[in-house]
Amino acid sequence: MILFTGYTIPRHETDNMTMKETQHKHLWWQEGIIYQIYPRSFQDSDNDGIGDLPGIIQRLDYLQSLGITAIWLSPIFPSPMADFGYDISDYCGIHPLFGSMEDFDELLREVHERGMKLILDLVPNHTSSEHPWFLESKSSRTSPKRDWYIWKDAQPDGSAPNNWLAMFGGSAWEWDEETQQYYYHAFLKEQPDLNWRNPEVQEAMLNVMRFWLDKGVDGFRVDVMWHMIKDSQFRDNPVNPNYREHQATYERLIPAYSTDQPEVHDIVRSMRQVLDAYDERMMIGEIYLPIDKLMTYYGTDSKEAHLPFNFLLLSIDWDAGKLASEINQYEGALPAGGWPNWVLGNHDQPRITSRVGQSQARVAAMLLLTLRGTPTIYYGDEIGMRDVPIPPDEVQDPQGLNMPGLNLSRDPQRTPMQWNAGENAGFSTERPWLRLPDFYKRQNVEAQQEDEFGMLTLYSKLIRLRQQEPALHVGEYKPVVTKSPLLGYLRVSGDTRFLVLLNLSHKPCYFTPDHFTFEGTIALNTIPEREGTSVKDQVYLSGDEGMVIRLKNS
Ligand code: GLC
Ligand code: MG
């Protein structure tokens, strides 16, 4: 007998919901689970110590059996690798390190044969400084491609056109001796920003999208979407009053004029129109902005990004109260027709296990895979991979190298996938491009496949349950009022109701709701022994315990 009060969903509304739900078909990117592969680090097939496309093909069965439905590949295109592929010199090719176009076509075929989707990284904000477009643009002030990039005169005293800073340290303006002008780069000087106000640039990049869509690619993750258009007057950015010395120099200013300009939405809309000319293709936007701003990237009429990446879980303090309020705020801010999504890790952020610890990482996995909205899993998180300390003389990431002492290198979260206890963790027979941790011998896919208590089993069970249950992959989200350290919510579809309870601390606690009674069975637990147990009205949770309770119907 469940007696919900307060936020109870009245029976007739639920019935309407069920009707609407069955009428409304959810698309693959709404129902599914995205898995991010960092290609350099997934699987090496030609033993050069660097992962590649044939390597990924070898591991597709693993991803399929885990229940992954879509793969997002970080850049695989020709690149001088100043920013490990985010500096592209040919948008329609494959870097020989990763393989050939034939390898790519085979990968796409193999992914599709397994009923999965493939999402590519699109980096439209900037090219490599070695891209033919930039070489031409740079060749003279009268070059037909001069206006494809952002060139400006020096100020009368020779200094940069304005105070804008690069994300990877220093000024965002680089002086070109030859043509006596500065060009703008939001990241490295090897990554000049394109001028998206130029219609030729727009058309060229939309054609890049068409090239891959024609091949059958299912979508794009668009790099730094909120950077694509800058203030037309190039006004100085205001000083950030909250800047602290230990922060990256970029944080000294508020990027009010260099990012998130109103005109960016016209661009995103035109990209969406390209996608909409095909069937069921999708676009994710990489956007680091507060919730209200993030929401604008769905577009006023949902005609912009399908999924503006939601990075709340990446930055938030691991605290039940804060999480609950942010989740509810995000849910409440979604525009009509806007589909939610959640991210726990990526190639730019410290791994979840290193942020919250091994035990809480299990709770985090349960959170990621039971919230409403498409989850994105970062490779290796499903086996609890940790950030691997990289000695200073082995650091490769430009963000780390350019700003030493600030601990900003992203190498630790980009280390090779730990497949087995063998040489180089089964990643390569040669020394990998980044080192492996000693503990890979214990922590790897093969070892965890046998381990009922391992992270991989938890992920695999969570994915299975989520994909089996409409309540979990498309159902409603209803917050449940809990006291810290507990986080709780309901997922509902028709008559099926799941109550998710997560203890965000190492200390035990009780869930004793004031306003309702409940009865159910634990369908999934971070402590597997407790699965199948019946619960009623009150539940005890050990430290670091999370559970998904299937509620009994009245
Ligand atoms: C995005 C990528 C990051 C890259 C940057 C510049 O934030 O995720 O890895 O360094 O863009 O392209
Ligand atoms: Mg290789």
Characterization of this structure:
This protein has 554 residues and is an alpha/beta fold. 27% of the residues lie in helices and 15% in strands. The protein has 17 helices and 19 strands. The protein has helices at 11-23, 28-31, 53-58, 60-66, 101-113, 132-139, 199-215, 264-276, 291-295, 312-315, 320-333, 352-356, 358-370, 398-402, 445-449, 455-468, 470-473; strands at residues 34-37, 70-73, 117-122, 151-152, 173-176, 181-184, 219-222, 282-285, 307-308, 341-343, 374-378, 476-480, 486-493, 496-503, 509-511, 519-525, 534-536, 539-541, 546-551. An 8-stranded parallel beta sheet has the order 9-8-7-3-2-1-11-10. A 6-stranded antiparallel beta sheet has the order 12-13-14-19-16-17. α7 runs parallel beside α8 (264-276). The chain is globular, with a radius of gyration of 24 Å. Alpha-D-glucopyranose binds next to loops.
List the helices and strands and how they pair.
Layout: H1 11-23, H2 28-31, E1 34-37, H3 53-58, H4 60-66, E2 70-73, H5 101-113, E3 117-122, H6 132-139, E4 151-152, E5 173-176, E6 181-184, H7 199-215, E7 219-222, H8 264-276, E8 282-285, H9 291-295, E9 307-308, H10 312-315, H11 320-333, E10 341-343, H12 352-356, H13 358-370, E11 374-378, H14 398-402, H15 445-449, H16 455-468, H17 470-473, E12 476-480, E13 486-493, E14 496-503, E15 509-511, E16 519-525, E17 534-536, E18 539-541, E19 546-551
Parallel strand pairs: 1-2, 1-11, 2-3, 3-7, 7-8, 8-9, 10-11
Antiparallel strand pairs: 4-6, 5-6, 12-13, 13-14, 14-19, 15-18, 16-17, 16-19
The site of alpha-D-glucopyranose has 9 residues, from loops.
